[in-house]
Write a structure and sequence with these properties.
With 105 residues, this protein is an alpha+beta fold. Helix content is 24%, strand content 46%. The chain has one domain (30-103): Beta Barrel (OB fold (Dihydrolipoamide Acetyltransferase, E2P)).
Length: 105
């Protein structure tokens, strides 16, 4: 009976640990920097950190919200050098952008 109880407790602990890990992965994070590259085929962006040489890659999808200033009623062109603030979450081994705020370079 003691072995069974210990086994159940270990299983509960492992499930709780896995759930906590999944929840951490789903938490939104923020990254600020300048756009380095856009890959339209793979739908990814590479952004260099605002205050370091760190670069991160972000996937975008149809649910990614993109906001930014407008000029003459048209959205500002997004190009390398554009400043960005990206909200993202780690999802299925990629950094998935949920919101991108673009400002002029």
């Amino acid at each position: 009976m003691k072995v069974f109880t210990a086994g159940v407790m270990v299983a509960v602990f492992l499930c709780a640990s896995a759930a906590a890990s999944i929840q951490r992965d789903q938490e939104e994070r923020t990254f600020e920097g300048q756009l380095v590259n856009i890959d339209k085929d793979s739908r990814t962006l590479i952004v260099k950190a605002k205050e370091s040489d760190k670069e991160m890659e972000f996937a975008v999808n149809e649910k990614t919200e993109v906001v930014g200033p407008q000029k003459d009623g048209q959205p500002v062109v997004v190009r390398p050098g554009s400043k960005m603030k990206i909200r993202y979450r780690f999802d299925q081994k990629v950094n998935l952008a949920t919101r991108i705020e673009v400002s002029e370079p």
